[in-house]
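DM from R.C. (forwarded with permission)

"hey, sorry to bug you on a friday — could you get me a structure for this? deadline for the figure draft is monday and I only need the backbone to look sensible"
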Amino acid sequence: MKLETLKADLVERLGLEEAIKLAGKKTVPVHKHTFWYFWGGISLFSFLIQVVTGILLMVYYRPGPEAYESVRQITYQIQFGWLIRSVHNWSANFFLFSVFVHMFSVFLMKAYRRPREVGWYSGIALLLLGLTFGFSGYLLPMDELSFFATKVGMEIPNAVPIIGPPIANLLRGGLEVNEFTVQRFFALHVVILPLLYMPLLGLHLWMVQKHGNAAPPSEEAKEPSQRKTMPFFPNFVAQDLGVWLIVLNLISLLAALFPWQLGPQADPLAAAPEGIHPEWYFMSQFAMLKLIGRMIPGLAGEAAAMTLFTLGLVLWALIPVFDKDKTNTKRSRQVLYFGIFVILVLLSTTFMGFVI
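My reply, with the result:
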C-alpha cells in the first residue's frame, strides 16, 4: 500500500500523467518491416554506452601535450582501461551505422510526411552532430593514425567555398593540427556537442512518442481492420530491450576479441603513412574530393566536390517539402528514385574511398 502511495505521489509531483497515458495508448504497427523500428532504439542505446564509457575515460584522459601518454596509460596500465576504451570506440561505430540505417528506413517508409516533419529535421541534425562527435573524438588519442587521418579529414571542411577555411582554422587553432587542436576537439567533444545534442535528442524522442511509428505505404493502403498492431508498453519495449541486450553482447565481444589499438605517437614532422584516410563515415566525402579533384585539379575541384555534396545534403534534408502529398504518386516515385540514387552513391563512393 505504501509503495502504491509513493508511486502515485511521484506521478503527481513529476507530472507524469500525460506521459503514462500516452505510453498506455501508443501502439506499434506489426508487418514484415517492423524489424526496422528497432534501429532507432539501437542508435539511442549505443549513444548511452558512449556517454557512460566517455565519462569513465575522462577520469584519466589529459588533453593537450599529454594526450597520447594519458591514452597509453588508459590502454596498458589502468585496470580494464583497454576494455572501456574499446567499448567506447566500437559503440561509436555502432551508433553512426545504426543512425544511417534508421534514417534510410525512415525515408523508405516515408515517415517524414506530415505530421512527422519535425522528427525528420531533428533526425538530420542529430546525424550531423553525431558525425561531428565521431570526427572530434577520433583525434583525441593523438597517435599516428588519428593525427594524419584528422589532417586528411580537415580537407573536407577546408574545401567548402568562402566559409570553409576560417572554420577549419578555428577548429585546428591555427593552420596545422597540433596540441591546441586536441584541446579544442576535447572541449567540442565533451561540452559543446553534448549541450547541443541532448535537448535535440529529447525533442526527437518526444516527436516519436507523440506521433508514433509510421507504417510503410503498403500498410497504409490497407483497411484499418486489416492492420495489425502491438502495444508499445510492455510488448514493444520488451522486444526493444531484448535487441539492446544483443547489441551490448555484440559490442562487448568485439571489444574483447578485437580491442581498439593504439599506434605510435604522432610526429607532426614525419611524412604521412601510406593509405591514410578518414573513418568510414567520412569516406564518401573523401572519395568525392579525390574523384572530382582528378577531373578538376586544384581548389576549384575541391570546391566543386563540396558544393555538390552540400547541395545533395540540402535536398535530402528538404525531402518532406517535395513529398508531402500522399495522393501525388508521381512526385512520390520521383523522391523514392532520388533517395535510392543517394543511397547507391553513398555506398559506392564509400567503397571507392578505400581503394583509390
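R.C.: lifesaver. The CA atoms of residues 323 and 335 lie 7 Å apart.
me: no worries. The chain is about 70% helix and 0% strand.
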